[in-house]
Structure formats: C-alpha cells, structure tokens
C-alpha cells in the first residue's frame, strides 16, 4: 500500500516541550496547529496501523530575497520531520515507532509545501 499527499504552506519545526504551572508539560500552540494541519491534510486515507512503514518527506520552503545557501538552513530538518511524524501519529499509523525507513529533504521553492509518501515496508 502507498499513500501520498501534500501539505500546503511552510513546514513548522517541532518545538521543545514547555513547562507550565505545577510542572505540567505541554506542546506549544504553533506546533500543535501544524501537527493538526498534517493530520487534516492526510484526511481519510488508508490507516497503516502497526505495520512497518517507509516515510518520505520532501520539504519546500519559501526562498528568501537573498539566500546565502542552496538549501534552507533556518530550521533543522530533523525538527521539521518530527513535526510531520507526530502529526501523522494516530491518523496514518499508530505511532512513529513503526517507521523503519525515513528519507527527508529540504529545498527552496516559490510554492512552499511538504510532500509526503507513506509505504508498506
């Protein structure tokens, strides 16, 4: 089984957990909103459950007016990838621990988006 979809707009990085009153740990609204967008973009496609899967994530960020490098360096690729994975938990698969193969890239584009492909291993 193979599913692919696109999340329109800029990819957000997974932010560090915050500590609230009485030591309660929470996820920031910015991170939670992006994770919700990931799940919404996946929609009612196939649920992979607990099967071993492969995840491919290609991130296209808006090009700054004067880029210093050929690839975006403002955000860490691993933090952006984590936000996508967490957004798919419980929506496309039970938990991201079932991902056995990951491929990820980030590039510039005039059309910021995140392209995702999920496949059975």
Write a concise keyword list for the protein shown above:
121 residues; 4-stranded mixed beta sheet; two-stranded antiparallel ribbon; 6 strands
Structure description:
The protein is of the alpha+beta class and 121 residues long. The chain is 21% helix and 33% strand. It contains two helices and six strands. The strands form two sheets. The protein has a four-stranded mixed β-sheet with strand order 1-6-4-5, with helices on one face. It has a two-stranded antiparallel ribbon with strand order 2-3. α2 (77-88) links the parallel β4 and β5 (99-109). The longest helix is centred in the N-terminal third of the chain and has 14 residues, at 29-42. The radius of gyration is 15 Å and the shape is globular. The N and C termini lie close together (9 Å).
Topology at a glance:
Blueprint: E1 2-8, E2 18-19, E3 25-26, H1 29-42, E4 53-62, H2 77-88, E5 99-109, E6 113-120
Parallel strand pairs: 4-5
Antiparallel strand pairs: 1-6, 2-3, 4-6
The secondary structure category is alpha+beta
Unreliable spans: none
Q: Secondary-structure element order, as H and E? A: EEEHEHEE
The biggest beta sheet, please? 4 strands, mixed
Work out the helix count: 2
What is the global morphology?
globular
| Number of DSSP E strands | 6
Share of helix, binned: 10-25%
């Amino acid at each position: 089984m193979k599913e692919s979809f696109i999340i329109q707009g800029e990819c957000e990085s997974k932010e560090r957990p915050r500590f609230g009153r009485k030591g309660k740990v929470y996820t920031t609204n910015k991170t939670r909103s992006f994770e919700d967008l990931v799940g919404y973009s996946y929609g009612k496609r196939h649920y992979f459950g607990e099967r071993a899967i492969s995840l491919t994530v290609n991130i296209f960020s808006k090009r700054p007016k004067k880029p210093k490098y050929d690839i975006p360096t403002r955000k860490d690729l691993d933090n952006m990838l984590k936000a996508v994975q967490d957004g798919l938990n419980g929506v496309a698969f039970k938990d991201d621990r079932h991902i056995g193969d990951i491929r990820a890239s980030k590039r510039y584009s005039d059309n910021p988006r995140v392209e995702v492909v999920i496949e059975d291993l």
